[in-house]
Amino acid sequence: MLELLVILVCAGILVSGVLAVCLGNMLAAMISAGLASLFAAVSYVLLAAPDVAMAEAAIGSGLATLIFLYTMRRTGSGREP
Amino acid sequence: MADIILQIAGALIFMGIACGVLRLIIGRTIVDRIVAIDMLTVISISLIALYAHLSGRFVYIDVALVYGLLSFLAVLAIARFLERKS
Q: Which residue ranges make up each domain of chain A?
């Protein structure tokens, strides 16, 4: 049961990583990268590392998206892939 | 009885994750994708809470709590970005 859960969540990481590479719109690619970080946090919980999952949820999903958005606003990009 | 309810909850969580990822892949506009990732965040919080009950380790509840406190920041920042751009 646990192995099936871990495999499904890791398939989610894979799908969202491929989406983050393949999507043309930069905002959508950023959202997909946040989703990969979200699934990674869930998989850390399933693999019995709750402190790593807490750091991943705080930094990877929250702070990284904010920094990407700030960079996009400062540089004025967001159209070109 | 409780096992049946937990199994139904797990099945519903995975159906929700599948539908959310499908919406994220199809997603016509950017707003669809934002709503999909917000929904996936809430579903993954409930998955962590369900696994905390199943494994009997209540440290995992703290992870769900921290994630629930921090998860709205990204959606809020993207919404403000879209509002400023339009």
A: 2-75
